[in-house]
Amino acid sequence: MLNESLKYKAALNRFAEEHHYQAPSEDEWSKAEALHGFLQEFSDATKAFSADRHPTAHLYLKMVLAIRYVLLDERWNSDELLNALADSMYEKFEKYWSKPNIVLLIAAVLDPSMKTDYLKFYFHTFGAQVDVEMRELRRYLRRYYREYERIVRSSSHVVIPTNEQPTSESNANSMSPLGPLCGKRRVEDAFAQFASQNSDSRSEKTELDAYLDDPRVIVRKEEAFNVIAWWKKNSDAYPILSLMARDFLAIPVSTVSSESAFSAAGRILGKDRLVVRSSHSVPHAGTLCAVVTAAGKCYYCNPF
């Protein structure tokens, strides 16, 4: 409503003048514009959190930081009303919003344009101990990853690519003079065996380690990045992480959209439209009556 009022400021002033109403003063209009600018960021965050056509979990940290910057903006110091409002809101912000759930942190890491770099920036902005927080986050990441890895490997229809070297028996068969391999292939197999015997005993990097070590996806300003499409495209490279991302990114930040759907259904299906009896038919229509009161009376057959 405030946005529409500012849009039609000239028309409202003219209407008030023609009908001899008291129009808002320029000072009051200025305060309304300042309040509109103050609340705009909260409106954007509400729309982002309440969306139901795309993932929202990975957007939580960005929206929280945006709200924090708005509340700490020094421009509100010049207005007594906005300054008091910002101070009161920031107090509640620190109490309820400064410590996000670990699930939302993992969802942010699973956004390839954010990864752990954005988490470090988030903890640094809030003055937390970055090393401690990141160590705790990595511990949860590895725990969830191992659980998904266990589930995926126990599933018969999911194939996980491995980099395992051929066994000694297969190497022996392939190196046999009677084998069909040519000299070039034999050299490659011999080198692979030599490298595996002389390599360090370090374990191979997991999908999670490879994903975190890869550089972030750089997204230009005002560019729409589809995180679901990215994971679908890279599901072959990260078969386990893609399943993990599918589940974590599907978690809604807010239940507003689902609650709104149930509220709308409640308004459509009221108490007088809940009883539909298959034995009751409309004689003049020859079909089942869809509008029956709780008392069992049909609105068509007994309108009064």
TrEMBL record:
<dbReference type="InterPro" id="IPR012337">
    <property type="entry name" value="RNaseH-like_sf"/>
</dbReference>
<dbReference type="InterPro" id="IPR008906">
    <property type="entry name" value="HATC_C_dom"/>
</dbReference>
<dbReference type="InterPro" id="IPR025525">
    <property type="entry name" value="hAT-like_transposase_RNase-H"/>
</dbReference>
<dbReference type="Pfam" id="PF05699">
    <property type="entry name" value="Dimer_Tnp_hAT"/>
</dbReference>
<feature type="domain" description="hAT-like transposase RNase-H fold">
    <location>
        <begin position="50"/>
        <end position="148"/>
    </location>
</feature>
<feature type="domain" description="HAT C-terminal dimerisation">
    <location>
        <begin position="207"/>
        <end position="273"/>
    </location>
</feature>
<dbReference type="Pfam" id="PF14372">
    <property type="entry name" value="hAT-like_RNase-H"/>
</dbReference>
<protein>
    <recommendedName>
        <fullName>Transposase</fullName>
    </recommendedName>
</protein>
